[in-house]
Fold this sequence. Notes:
By secondary structure, the chain is mainly β. It is 2% helix and 46% strand. Strands 1, 2, 3, 4, 5, 6, 7, 8, 9, 10, 11 and 12 form a 12-stranded antiparallel beta sheet that branches.
Amino acid sequence: MATAAHRALLLAHPDTPGEWVWSIAADVGLEAGTLVCHYALQGEVGRLRVPAVRAGRRADELWQHTCFEVFAAAAGSEDYYEFNFSPSLDWAAYHFRGYRAGMTPASLARAPGLTSRRTAGRLELTAHLHLEGLAALARAPRLRLGLTAVIEDEGGTLSYWALRHAPGNPDFHDPGGFALEIETA
């Protein structure tokens, strides 16, 4: 990665511990105008509902099942983006004008490049998110990121993972969860 890669561990929300997940690590960095996010889940992957790999397309409501996410905002801005990446290679992108306000589909110049790999003890997903066409992010000197995951177990129970959780119910949109700041230049 062109900029220094940042490694972080996601924490389970205390009300949704995720019995079959031992840890989720995330590495993120910028590479020639592309935000690269790599997620590595360790646990009993056979006890999780992981969608089969498909051709990959834009799809809504991916957060209702196993998916990895990044929330991104230019430092100092209330506007932010939400990106969802499924192990099926489906993806979603939304723009918000403020906390859970004014949601619209984000217009991307190119679809994210996704790869997914699964073994008995590990689930990995890498997303190459091209920032061209997302001027607010591409031109920002610093980005605030919230790295998150929703993991569904074999019984349909969801666990919620993030760098930092707000008090109360899981809420990845809370600006306090955008806990990783990276320089873009």
